[in-house]
Each structure stands twice: as C-alpha cells, then as structure tokens.
Amino acid sequence: MSEPNPYADGEYKWGPGQGPGQAPGQGGAPGTPGYGYPQDAVPGYGYPQTPAYPQAPAYQPTLAEGVPVPQHFPPAPAGAAPVLALGDITVVGDQIITPAGSMPLKGAVWNAMDMSRTEEKIPTVGIVLAIVFALLCLVGLLFLLMKEKKTTGFIQVTVTSGGRHHATMIPATGPDTIHWVMGQLNFARSLSV
Asked: What is the pTM of this model?
C-alpha cells in the first residue's frame, strides 16, 4: 500500500480546501470559492437566495387562467339561530359556518363515511359464572350466551361549497349513531338545494 499511484501525474490538485490550480492550504481562505453551490449560478430551484441577487417575489396563488378565486362570505348575523350542527359544522341561515370560515349553503355537497365498528364479546362476569356453575350443573354453560356490545370509532362528515372543503369527526357512541348522522346529513342536503 505504500506504492505511489501510477495514474497520478505528480502533484495532488483537487480536494477539500484546494481548488484547481491552488496551492495546498489556500482553499479555506475567506472569499475563495470552495465546496457547495456554484459561485456563478443563477438563483432558482435548489439554489439559495443571496443578497447579491434580487429577492424572489412574494407568494402568488397558482390558479389557472380564468379560474375565479373563491369568495369569502361574511359571518352570519349575530341574532340568527343555528338550524343544524354536526360536530364543528353549523348551518345558520343561508351559510355553513366552520372553523375554517363561512361557506354558502346553496349548492353544498355533503358526505359521510362510517369509520366505526361494533365488537361483541362475552363479558368476564359471564365466563366466571359459567365456570362456577359448570361444576355444580351443566346449566352454568348458559352464562356463555351473555354478550356485550361495544362501539368505537368515528363518523367523518365532509362539506364542500364555494371552493372550500371542511371535514369533521363525530364519535360513535353506539351502533345507531350512523343513523342519526345520516338523518342530519339528509336534512342538510335538503337545505342545500
């Protein structure tokens, strides 16, 4: 391993702290080009802005030509009573109020997705009673027929109107929660016509 590189033409010419044509030890001096971005590169994608270059323009929305910017609707009057509330979505008058802002009620598209599940299992009490009474008589096996239902999960409700979209999650407290949400959703759809 102590043999010299047969392909080297003499002096080491490039590496950290050395540029082509620089003597060893001069590459780290301030103001000399080194590793990183090319010094003559025009700033753009992948290159940082430097004070020598003009600052990029502020963010502009990227809407296609002729696409209208969605309107911002004023908040509902203070005295208006809510007609419907699903999670954090509230219908007041002719507007839908969400944490993200107001949307027009007319033409709104409502959707719901059931992400809940109901599990059925034998409770611990039933298993203990079945073991105790199985020793006395076989009638104790009837305790294994005890069932306990538990519903977990959420129902996702989404509304889209006036170029805006909002989704909310309603916790499922029982197997009939989806029926209640769908009844409210169908009422909201009838208001949106």
From this structure: 0.53
